[in-house]
Amino acid sequence: MKLKLFFFLFLIFCISAQAQSYIFGKVTSEDGAEMQDVTVINIRTDEMTMSNRDGHFMISGRAGDELRFVKAGYDRLMKKVTPENVQSPMNITLVRGTIQIPEVAVKQGITGNLKIDSRNFGPSRKVEKLTKEIDRYIAQKTDPRVLAARPGEFVQPKGQGFSIGKVKDKWDDVDLMKYLRASLGDEYFTDLKIEKPQIDHFIYYVFAGGFERKKILKYGFCSDADLNRFQRFVLTRISSYRAPQTQR
């Protein structure tokens, strides 16, 4: 009877040990605003999720795990899960990243000396001379022989002209790839276990997976919404990208 009871208790312990626990929480900014589309990564399991529009998130984990919180424009945050976090929600506050302001050169103030002040605040003599030479060159009439077509050279006929075809997009995939990498930073991808030499290849892999970018390429502009949409799309492609590497 004691042996059966011991076996029963041992079985319950094994089941509870295998049961998956989840970490719940909420992400806000330093001014208390709820933050959407914050990437949450469990470093131990490599599992990822994103906070919803109310800032709430849920990810599997246990006490002792390290969670990383990443969002473009904000300092990334590492948080170690405590036993209290398993029992109650985890509150996370992200701080906006520091923007480096370029140095501004301050000119020397007025001294009262006309000779010195005219040299400091007015254009230099070299600039004045160059400006006069440019104005003189522009005022000269161009020799017609300079603009004449060379033998065998195509000359555009006068008239209404002809269609030049579809106007090219302002960006191509290379431009967008460079923008995404610069905006998110290499650490965003290395946190996803993508090695630096493979970052460009992974971004192209996400593009090939169906990431909609026609308007971005057309206008040469990627909004914050597009950036968040790309990060959500990354979560749907990261597993399949890792699969061939795992098989090897």
From TrEMBL:
InterPro entries, alphabetized: CarboxyPept-like_regulatory
Residues annotated as signal peptide: 1-19
Keywords (A to Z) from UniProt: Signal
Protein name per its UniProtKB record: Carboxypeptidase regulatory-like domain-containing protein
Organism: Chryseobacterium gallinarum
